[in-house]
Amino acid sequence: MSIFLLDSIVVMFFVETVLLLLMGTSMFAVAKILKYWNFDASTTLQYALEKKNYLVNTIILFTIGVKIILFVFFVKSLDDLAPLVPGAMCATGVIGANKFGNTLLIYKIFTLFLLGVWVVINRLDLKTKKFDYLRKKYYLFIVIFALLGIEFALELLYFTNIPLNTPVFCCSVVFVVENLPFGLETVDLVKIFYLLFVSILVVDYFNKASLSFVLNILFLLLAYYCVTYFFGTYVYEEPNHKCPFCMLQKEYHYIGYLIWSTLFLGTYFGISPHIIYSLIGKKYQRLLRYNALFLTLFVAICSYYVISFYLRNGVFL
Amino acid sequence: MKPKIAIEHLYKIYNEGKESEFAALKDITLSVGADEIIILKGVSGSGKSTLLSLMAAFSKPSRGTILIDGENISKLPDIFASKFRNKEIGFIFQSFNLIEGLSVSENVRIPLVLEPLEKKEIDQKVEKALQLANIAHKSQQNIADLSGGEKQRCAIARALVNNPSIIFADEPTANLDKENSLKFIEVLEKFKTLKKCVVVATHDSLFDDLPFVSQYINITDGELVL
After folding, report:
1. I need a labelling partner for B37 at 20 to 30 A (CA). Which of A22, A316, B49, B131 fits?
2. Angstrom distance (rounded) from CA A110 to CA A42
3. Three-class SS of residue A73?
């Protein structure tokens, strides 16, 4: 059982189980709130439900906070597993060790985005006098809870199926062929990357949430390829070292955590206003300013490595 | 005329449905006018303080409504309840609830900390409240160095500093000697001239038959005795 390869994985599963239990318990209260909620009533039941609402909110916010920390922990655990999985040099080998790994990683990022949307809707709900978004907030939570259940199952499948006898591919093999989208060349990809970034800044300035949603999704996709196939090579200072995970390691001062977190946070703030508007009909464009802030930080860090390399060596890789 | 405070069929029941169920308030219905002073009378444990805490939106009832200026404050979400308290309510606690280590002036300033006001404006409001409560001469003194009566005057100043429309006082003379208790009654009369709505919960007989009091309401075992 590869679950027991590392203490951290056992701890992660334990915490995940506790969180699921907490959320599962909250679901009873959520179901009762959804069934009987009538804010205009001054009955014993309604007052009790209002108290429960605060309790459930607190539990959910706590679980979301822990889930965010657990995600970082998950990525760190993948990296720590590398020496134990034959052939793996970093998390690339570990995540690609079976068919569930990459799906799990993308799935986790997706659920984190959804949890983030829930946090904002909850915040907006608590700002209204009559809990205007309460029902939609809890319907979304039911969906998230189901998704988290699937995530847990996927995680179990992934960690119990990491082969310890069969060698896996390391990043130098996985990313050796530049598998860029739309058959683009790296140079074109980087040009589009900067163009998209500037477009997002302009769109954010004019508070266009739906356009920002589209551009940010495109940017997220493009940024992944750019970091892996272009900016990463400047972080490693090796033209053939193409990997999205190695930069999470100590040798590179854990800069990968900063790079990926600014990208994910920036994108989250960019796509959320449109999703929130679609779900509850409320405009919350102020998040776009954080979109601009975090993506600028992301682009600045990535560009720094390229400029710094050029200034020191007088050439590009 | 619309009452300032209108309470309808209010209940506060602890451990409802359990063996240890206890009804602190039962079917309370009353109303208070905008510039009325009312005295809630009753022995310890009769439910006076519970009623005050519900009216001040410190806690939520089990049933019933509390309308203040027509708004049901018992339904306010926490964030709005806090804003309501800060804007509309001045509360004088039995044991004053002042922060020792801070001066009189600093204690009085606390309700204004979250207000978007200039320092000069805050200073003016604090000074005015200190004057009204006759404690301006001790403004720089530490709370720990004050007598019981002075502490209470500081608590009164703090309750007045936001210029609230309603003032609640819970057993305001419980920790005072007779002289200071009579001084508080003088302050109470001053509230009348300031056109404040005042609700005092007390079992002190000094409050009996005061000419400026609009209503005396007796509470026994959580019920109004008419």
Report:
1. B131
2. 40
3. helix
Instruction: State mean pLDDT over B21-41.
Output: 93
pLDDT (average), residues B119-137: 92
A44-74 in b/e form (b: 16+ CB < 10 A) is bebbbbbebbeebbebbeebbebbeebbebb
- Put simply, whether B1 touches A (Cβ < 8 Å) is no
Give pLDDT tens digits for B12-22.
999 888 889 99
Q: How far apart are CA A70 and CA A15, in angstroms?
A: 8
Answer yes or no: is the ipTM higher than 0.95: no
pLDDT in tens, B188-198: 888 888 889 99
Count how many pairs of residues, chain A against chain B, have C-beta atoms within 8 Å.
32
pLDDT the model gives residue A80: 85
Q: Residue A292 is encoded by which pair of tokens?
A: 């601009």
Query: Is A50 part of the contact surface with chain B (CB cutoff 8 Å)?
Result: yes
Give CA separation, A101 vs A112, A254, A281, B17, in Å: 17, 22, 36, 50
Q: What percent of chain B has pLDDT over 90?
A: 69
- Whether chain A has a CB inside 8 Å of the CB on B149: the answer is no
Task: List all residues 6 or more positions away from A152 whose beta carbon is below 8 Å from its beta carbon.
Answer: A16, A17, A20
The residue extents of the domains of chain A are 2-160, 175-313
All structural domains of chain B, each given as residue ranges with its CATH number in brackets, are 34-46+77-225 (3.40.50.300)
Q: How far is CA A149 from the centre of its chain?
A: 17
Which residue out of A45, A47, A54, A137 would a mutagenesis test of the B interface target, given it has the greatest number of B Cβ atoms within 10 Å?
Answer: A47
Cβ contact (<8 Å) for A43 and B63?
Answer: yes
Virtual torsion, Cα A278, B77, B72, B93, nearest 10 deg: -170
B75-116, pLDDT tens digit by residue? Answer: 999 889 999 999 999 999 988 999 999 999 999 999 998 888
- Nearest CB partner across the interface for B77, out of A43, A44, A129: A129
Q: Going by C-beta distance under 8 Å and a sequence separation of 6 or more, which residues neighbour residue B39?
A: B200, B201, B202, B207, B210, B213, B215, B216, B217
Supply the pLDDT for residue A176: 63
Q: Is A127 on the interface with B (CB under 8 A)?
A: yes
Instruction: Region of A75 please: left (phi>0), alpha (psi -120 to 50) or beta.
Output: alpha
Contacts of B13 in chain A (CB under 8 A): 44
Q: What digits encode the pLDDT tens for the residues B198-223? A: 999 999 889 998 999 999 999 999 99
| Cβ pair B60:A51 closer than 8 A | yes
